Amino acid sequence: MKILIVSYVFPPNAGGAASLLYNLCKFLPKEKYVVITVNNEPSIRNRCFDKDFTLDCNTVRLSTGNYAFNSLFFSLKVAFKGISLNKSDKFDCILAVHPSIFNLLGAFILHKIIRKPLVLYLHDLISTSRDSIKRAFWDIIAKIVLLDSNLILVTNETFQRYYARKGIKTEVFPHCIELFDRKIVNCIEKSAKDKIKIVFTGMIYEANEDAILSFLDSVKKIARPNIEIVFATQTQKEYIKNFGIGFLPKEKCFELQRSADILLLPLAFKAPYPEEILVAFPYKTLEYLNAGKPILAIAPKGSFLEKFIRNSGVGVVVTDPTTENIMSALEVLSDPEKRKNFSEKALEVIKNFDAKIRAQELYTLLQNMKNNMRK
Questions:
Q1: Predicted pLDDT of residue 126
Q2: Which of 1, 101, 153, 264 fits 173 for a cystine, CB–CB 3.0-4.6 Å?
Q3: For residue 4, what are the contacts with CB-CB under 8 A and spacing of at least 6?
């Protein structure tokens, strides 16, 4: 079984989708897959490049160029390169990873030419341009790709129900991560009098910014001297200049997460794509759980994230980001005994997302799909 993985992002990009692929591919037999991805220029430009975050695997990196419609040209490059690789590697299926409709399109074109099964692995909804004309065009393309795929994998049941309402069948294949050695996870709790360190890691953008602003505004109003805030983000914002420490390489980021007392996990309430927010399962959730620290989630009611944090008992969720509600959540998380309980639960929950197990499940799933198509 030979798999061609097509993904716009891949290590040494240190973003969420690339981190997921790192953890998944690390435990796939490396002779069983080839990756087509973009070169490192976009990661360097977007300040999410980590030279030490790499995988020893067969990776083909394509340039996007410096011309108009360069992402669309990337789709064509994927198809042409895939045709060339298939002559020697003889792939059994194409696994196209979203986010990025352009690599989905490239994988789709390749699928039609070499006639190999197409599997979509969607980390987010296939969202397109907000320009009405462009959106109409890309919505048609997305529907064609979705309906012609042999298998569609999504990250959670809320995601699955969204597509089911549109008549599109999917299978749930959750995120995964390589579990830390428990010996390096610091579960020692501080007393209520000690300074409480609240950490956020990752990008700040419209999918989480209004929740972040609500949190910061609330902390400012509360004016508690025993709260320390640290934001490790490549995003440059004036309002985090006093506690933003910039982009951290993965290992340093993990160390910071493990040093926290509380990990902040925000989702926007007024994002221009509310449906995507409702199905979102941010990859940093797994990194936070792996750190063994309680989570303060600020997320819309009814979202998958809200239900996951609440039902798994790994932290506190605020679904109406008023100062009063955020202050109440911080009061709960200021209790050392409650933090300890949330931490212990996090270390139990993360076992359900073991990358070693998930990689084998994925390989078996694709093998079964191939076998069923032969019948």
A1: 83
A2: 153
A3: 33, 34, 36, 82, 85, 86, 89, 91, 93, 94, 95, 110, 116
Query: Tokens for 288?
Result: 């936070």
Residue 194 has pLDDT above 50, yes or no: yes
pLDDT in tens, 62-106: 987 654 456 778 899 999 999 999 999 899 999 999 988 888 999
> Residue 186, Cβ neighbours under 10 Å: how many?
14
Both tokens of residue 187? 């579960």
Contacts of 301 (CB under 8 A, 6+ apart): 319, 320
Quote the CA–CA distance of 26 and 178 in Å, as a whole number: 9
Cis preceding-peptide flag for 321 (omega within 30 of 0) = no
Residue 68 has a pLDDT of 44
First to last CA, the chain: 17
Rounded to two decimals, the pTM is 0.93
64 contact partners, CB below 8 Å, separation of at least 6: 38, 39, 41, 42, 70, 71, 73, 74
Place of tokens 């025993």: 226
| Nearest by Cα to 208 from 292, 127, 264, 131 | 264
Rounded-to-integer distance, Cα 358 and Cα 176, Å? 6
Query: What is the token pair recorded at 106?
Result: 């490239």
